[in-house]
Automatic annotation (TrEMBL):
The keyword Cell wall biogenesis/degradation does not apply. Residues 206-336 form the LD-carboxypeptidase C-terminal domain. This is LD-carboxypeptidase. Residues 17-132 form the LD-carboxypeptidase N-terminal domain. Belongs to the peptidase S66 family. The lineage of its organism: Bacteria, Bacillati, Actinomycetota, Actinomycetes, Kitasatosporales. The keyword Membrane does not apply. CDD domains: Peptidase_S66_mccF_like (cd07062). Keywords: Hydrolase. It comes from the Bacteria. SUPFAM superfamilies: Class I glutamine amidotransferase-like, LD-carboxypeptidase A C-terminal domain-like.
Length: 347
């Protein structure tokens, strides 16, 4: 891990962007959002997507997926890399990665959820990645890319510099089925967002960002893949939970375990994504969604009171498994201005 993480050069319209499936090869199961995302990259973002042997291969081995990542990063004609989706076994891919090859060919990588594994790996190499904007979920969104997501992604992809995150006025929760073409013909239903929840907003914190999906970080800790806690001192932690909808009890226990590891007290500021609160398996109504999110917020604050009582926290931020979704730099600069209620990132 280097002391000065590097922002890789930005792609330009007309460049080639690698489309990879380091976790679950979602395009092999659900081609409709994948094809829509590819078309939007070409027509709306001016980038030429390049697929690899395992992009749509459902039974690809970890070594095969790692080989595709090596090919994507080593190809001098490819200027950015984007994951199709997340998954649940990217932790098995990381041991196959060639750190020297990737350090020698740094490129912006976009993905979240299971891609926390790869984002952390890049961070260890001193390369800034981008938590967010997977092809099938954000680029393959029904009807259109959400305007807030679009603005954030374009800034992260093409322009860089500082970017102030914007609270969403509404959020989409109830989803359509990806195998149904009718899903993509209409705007997703939305409900009013409750805004960001600020806790101890009495300071301004600026530091290097680290974190990702809480469940994946918990697995990484079990596999002893996390850096020593002290190396994160002064950084900004960001966390989010997945479509598996962990209970408030599970969220507290995972955070408690990270606290016992000495991690939570290293971060003077913590950002927590708005919890996804609906799936086909758990079709909560509006009251149930609100209750689930409130219980998760309480679990997070309970853990912080125990392990990081002085930390400034912002909950229900539009990051991770939420719609719209804002891109967060992984290993980049984040400024949390409590008195002004502003979050600014550096892309």
């Amino acid at each position: 891990m280097t002391d000065q993480p590097a922002y890789p050069p930005k792609p330009r319209p007309g460049d080639r962007i690698a489309i990879v499936s380091p976790g679950f090869a979602g395009p092999g199961a659900f081609p409709l959002p994948h094809e829509l995302g590819l078309r939007r990259l070409r027509e709306e973002y001016g980038l030429e997507p390049v697929e690899y042997p395992t992009t749509r291969k459902l039974d690809a081995t970890p070594a095969e997926r790692a080989a595709d990542l090596h090919a994507a990063f080593a190809d001098p004609t490819v200027t950015a890399v984007m994951a199709t989706l997340g998954g649940d076994d990217q932790i098995t891919v990381v041991p196959h990665l060639d750190a020297a090859l990737i350090r020698a060919n740094p490129k912006p990588f976009f993905g979240y959820s299971d891609n926390t594994n790869l984002l952390d790996f890049l961070h260890r190499q001193g390369i800034v990645g981008y938590h967010g904007a997977a092809l099938m979920t954000q680029l393959g969104r029904p009807h259109a890319v959400h305007p807030l997501t679009d603005a954030s992604l374009r800034a992260a992809l093409f322009t860089g510099g500082t970017y102030e995150l914007t609270e969403a006025a509404d959020t989409s929760t109830v989803l359509g089925r990806w195998e149904d073409p009718a899903t993509f013909a209409r705007e997703p239903a939305a409900e009013p967002a409750t805004g960001w929840h600020w806790h101890r907003p009495d300071r301004v914190v600026e530091g290097t960002s680290w974190g990702g999906n809480l469940e994946i970080l918990h697995w990484m800790a079990a596999a002893d893949r996390l850096r020593p806690a002290e190396e994160h001192a002064g950084s900004v932690l960001f966390l989010e939970t997945s479509e598996e909808l962990p209970s408030a009890t599970e969220v507290f226990r995972m955070l408690r375990n990270l606290g016992e590891r000495g991690l939570l007290r290293q971060f003077p500021a913590v950002l927590v994504g708005r919890a996804m609160a609906w799936t086909f398996e758990h079709p909560h109504d509006a009251e149930g969604r609100a209750r689930y999110r409130a219980e998760q917020r309480a679990a997070v604050l309970r853990a912080l009171e125990t392990y990081a009582p002085d930390a400034t926290a912002v909950l229900d931020v539009d990051l991770g498994h939420t719609e719209p979704q804002l891109v967060v730099p992984y290993g980049g600069r984040v400024r949390v201005d409590g008195p002004a209620r502003r979050i600014t990132v550096t892309y």
